[in-house]
Amino acid sequence: IVIDRLAVMFANGVWVEKDKNGEPVEKSIIVDRLENPNIFQSRNEFLFQWFIQRCVYGNVFDYTLKGMMSDIPQAIWHLPPSRMVIKRTGKIFKQTRIEDIIEGYELILDRENNEKYNVDDIIQFSMPNCDDPILGSSPLLALRMPISNIRAAYGFRNVVITRKGALGIWRNETKDAT
Question: Assign residue 86 a region: left if phi > 0, alpha if psi is -120 to 50, beta otherwise?
Fold first, then answer.
């Protein structure tokens, strides 16, 4: 519920491009693309999905589909983080370019079909991860035990209510008035 509410508030944000002096740019082609990121999503749906993926998976992988003669993407798609694999070079800390750290990305579709992406085609957003600076970590991992306990408590309540609650009544076997 909390993630959903935050995602709704985030999705109601407004895109503004500013020039080097901090003044808003009128008729920005970048803002136009972000207002209509792809053929299936509106700005609000796109931002909502972005926020949900970041909070649930700790990572967002945006594929920017570029035209032949333009640096402005023709479409921006969120790729499913649960199916993304980062192809690493094995080097991290002594590098200054992302290409020296990441060879590429791969989207696992099924056992036989995978889609490969170049480093410059993917924009990756990650939640900070103390153990891995490349792949983010879901904040929900810290809630694993509390969520497990809540699920068990609700399961127990369900059993009590549906199978074991009020199976009979207590009554007194004596024949007196009390």
Answer: beta
In degrees and rounded to multiples of 5, residue 11 shows phi and psi of -65, -20
Q: How far is CA 93 from CA 101, 140, 156, in A?
A: 9, 27, 49
Q: What is the average pLDDT value for the chain, to the nearest integer?
A: 86
Determine the Cα–Cα distance for residues 4 and 49; give it in Å rounded to an integer. 10
For residue 51, which amino acid is it? Answer: F
Report the alpha-carbon distance of residue 94 to residue 92 in Å, rounded: 6
Please tell me which residue, 19 or 143, carries the higher pLDDT value.
19
pLDDT of 89 over the 70 cut: yes
Cα separation, 30 vs 8, in Å, equals 23
pLDDT tens digits along 145-169: 777 788 888 887 777 677 765 556 6
Distance CA 5, CA 131 (A): 29
Calculate the CA 152 to chain-centre distance: 26
pLDDT at position 140, please?
Answer: 77
Contacts of 170 (CB under 8 A, 6+ apart): none
